[in-house]
Specification:
single chain, about 325 residues, mainly alpha, 14 helices, globular
Length: about 325
Amino acid sequence: MAVSDRPIAWLLDSDPSIRWQVMRDLLDAPEPEWSTERAKVETEGWGARLLAHEDDDGRWAGGACFPQDFTTSEWDAVGQPWTATMYALAQLRDFGLDPSTERAKRAVELIGANARWEHDGEPYWEGEVEECINGRTVAEGAYFGVDVSKIVDRLVGERLDDGGWNCERANGSTRSSFASTISVLEGLLEYERATGGTPGSRAARRSGEEYLLERHLFRRLSTGEPADELFLQLLYPTRWYYDVLRALTYFRDEAGLTGTAPDPRLEEAVDHVRSKQREDGTWLLDRSLPGRTWFDMDERAGEQSRWVTLRAMRVLTWWDRSRRP
């Protein structure tokens, strides 16, 4: 087996949520083949395990962003919990749960009827006030077929002068953040994939992209120094955190939707991801986030990561193909 084939075989010897994406994105398998594998997400492996934790009323852990039994002392002692509805839906989208399944439709309907945001009791699919949360709600809502146009309009109007977003805007922040901006961009792109978007949402998306591109995905505009060394550590699940692989994944997805060529300003981040590949063709999980989860996906910080390897190989495949004459 060639070195380049080893990580593929390792990825295929995994969960259906990874296998179907390897088949589609790395092996260019015909759709009937990868869609058959994708259907298993609902009934096997991590997808089925996460669905099994859904409450009877459609929520997870009895809450929208936080579990019903969450206390700030838990955050201080252990870290932010990741078991509530917002993070479950984000994970199911990453797994590739088919939105057309009855299980997905039922969950979306029940969440709309029963879930309320902790901020002020807002209905779940209407969003709340924080840009990071609303960006995620748009991404999951658009993916699962919900009309989230009102949240999109709100996000478009909350763009800051430098082109991006910051979830601390309501507290007086006037500068965008990498983490808030990527969350909103992912939502706007998913909305555009589902609906075509609006002139305003497309313009906002492009300005947010420019915010990241001007900074080569991780540098301060003022000094050129890394804005945060953690941006260079590869993470999964990313939750609301930012790293360069998450940003590159976004730009790959955007190119797939719009047909645009990769921006040259991505190259430094691409080279960084490439430099972290091991001799066996895999990537390590550089860090993991503390906090309550429903289950681990067999990966710990400092160990080989199937998710990071899949995401890195997918980005590099896209980048390298775009550079061919």
